[in-house]
Here is the input.
Amino acid sequence: MMVNTTIRNTGNHSAGRVGLYLLLVALLSAFCYVTLHVWLLPDAVAYQETGKMTAGYLLYAAIGILFSTPGPFVAVLILSVFAERISVRQLFRNILHTEDKKKTALITGSFCAMALIYAVLFGKRNGTAWYLFLPSFLIMIPFVGIAEETGWRGLLQPEMEKRMPFPFSVLVTAVIWYAWHYSVWLDPTSRHYGDSMIGFGITILIWAFALAAIYKSTKSVIACAVYHAFIDAIGAIYDWNALFDVFPGDVPANVFRVIWLGAAILLWFAADSREKRKIHSEKLPMNMI
Here is the structure.
């Protein structure tokens, strides 16, 4: 039977699995801090200023691609293979598994459309050509979407939801997700460098609700990955800070924040009600169904 979460649920081992996941993410983050933001940062800054590639910059780029953004995925991969004895093939099957493809496409597409409408109406272009949106989106699905969402929504969010009500589980996941992005305030080559920490935090919280609601409704990691990649692809052709992270923000930005959060809450309520009805029907005697 297909397992919907990226790591199998094993009852008493759940807490240990979350602890190991967070430990692995912390270790990978510490490794990236030392290498990317201390040792190799001058090479990255020099490349940004001069465009000259050096061995130091190539190493910087390689570590970033393999261990920085994909840290959550790498942590889940290690746990799956070495702790849960799940093959790499099965892990990817779990990531790509979608129970109801039409419903998943409709929900994910609606949230993506909402983000695109907001960007087109109120965003400030950063000079990148529109035709680069599609290739950016496709590249970001594996290297940003799957790289992050395998851990955050595929493992951490559902595990937290077992321990506490949905809103609190989202809040805990959002705080950890926010802290994990520490590099955006340390690396001057990051497109988030100089963004409002408060505005970025509000955005993280709203998207944590949206992504958690998408996962709760679809049980699909790839749906969360697609939405995450779509948002980042928008940020590749629009001024990210002005569009998403501005604080306190103008009227359109705050209105869309409320709409985003409201849509996520409505989706959560719908999914939660459906789950409760299913549980109730399963408890009824067969002759009463």
User: Anything to note?
Assistant: The radius of gyration is 20 Å.
